[in-house]
């Protein structure tokens, strides 16, 4: 199964994508996580990506598309994958379709996690991230067992650099201008499914499972 997650920053794409990946035993590919891993490792890609991410802008397509395409050609993607944070504009979606077509494949579902902008700021300011293993928490909606410590790997949890309110505002603008048009793109392709992302996490997950089927 090949799935694309759509939704505003903070809609819960990452939260749901991790659960879906586990349930269907497919890799979870988050372009944001790949960039953050590169920033942490101090690679050239990381330095470049950071200059855009810190401003809430998109990393240029010439960097992002090639990186994603290399990743989906890896062996573990043969059985399917879930993309979280890619595509983020029409050219990225078109490149993805083209590459899949070349190997006679296609995206099966685009799941839009729908959350109004008003809820987003609240979610982002409460999010705490583990930059070591990629786990995500929320101080009130999904707190770690021990305050500011990752349940999985015991590293300290932090507020992401791009979760400051002024950067979140910019990310939302970028979302509306560049990413939201993908809803129509996938609707036209007949594979768009929308879930109400304001429900609690388990309900959102149950709604997604009812769309994807229980294995
Ligand atoms: P990326 O890391 O992809 O960030 P994003 O899309 O803005 O999404 P987030 O990770 O912020 O949110 P999410 O929807 O995954 O929400 P989460 O599950 O964490 O990208 C970061 C940057 O990298 C971009 O700005 C860009 O610069 C660059 N980039 C990445 N991909 C790119 C691309 N393809 N092209 C160009 N540039 C790219 O949930 C949020 C919070 O809410 C958490 O605290 C969570 O616990 C909580 N929560 C989740 N679900 C619920 C619920 N149902 N109820 C209550 N709380 C909930
Ligand atoms: Zn961790």
From TrEMBL:
GO terms for biological process: AMP salvage. Monomer. Consists of three domains, a large central CORE domain and two small peripheral domains, NMPbind and LID, which undergo movements during catalysis. The LID domain closes over the site of phosphoryl transfer upon ATP binding. Assembling and dissambling the active center during each catalytic cycle provides an effective means to prevent ATP hydrolysis. Some bacteria have evolved a zinc-coordinating structure that stabilizes the LID domain. Zn(2+) binds at residues 130, 133, 150, 153. This is Adenylate kinase. The gene is adk. InterPro entries: Adenyl_kin_sub, Adenylat/UMP-CMP_kin, Adenylat_kinase_CS, Adenylate_kinase_lid-dom, P-loop_NTPase. It catalyses: AMP + ATP = 2 ADP. The keyword Lipoprotein does not apply. It holds the Pfam family ADK.
């Amino acid at each position: 199964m090949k799935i694309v997650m759509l939704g505003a920053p903070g809609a819960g794409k990452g939260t749901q994508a991790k659960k879906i990946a586990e349930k269907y035993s497919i890799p979870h590919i988050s372009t944001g996580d790949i960039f953050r891993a590169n920033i942490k490792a101090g690679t050239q890609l990381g330095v470049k990506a950071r200059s855009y991410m810190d401003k809430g802008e998109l990393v240029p397509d010439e960097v992002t598309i090639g990186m994603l395409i290399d990743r989906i050609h890896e062996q573990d993607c043969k059985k399917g994958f879930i993309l979280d944070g890619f595509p983020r504009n029409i050219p990225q979606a078109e490149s993805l379709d083209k590459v899949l077509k070349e190997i006679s494949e296609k995206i099966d579902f685009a799941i839009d996690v729908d959350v109004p902008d008003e809820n987003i700021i609240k979610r982002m300011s409460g999010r705490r991230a583990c930059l070591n293993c990629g786990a995500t928490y929320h101080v009130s909606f999904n707190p770690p067992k021990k305050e500011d410590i990752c349940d999985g790997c015991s590293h300290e949890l932090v507020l992401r650099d791009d979760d400051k309110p002024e950067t979140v505002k910019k990310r939302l603008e970028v979302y509306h201008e560049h990413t939201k048009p993908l809803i129509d793109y996938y609707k036209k392709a007949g594979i768009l499914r929308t879930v109400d992302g304001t429900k609690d996490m388990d309900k959102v997950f149950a709604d997604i499972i009812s769309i994807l089927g229980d294995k």
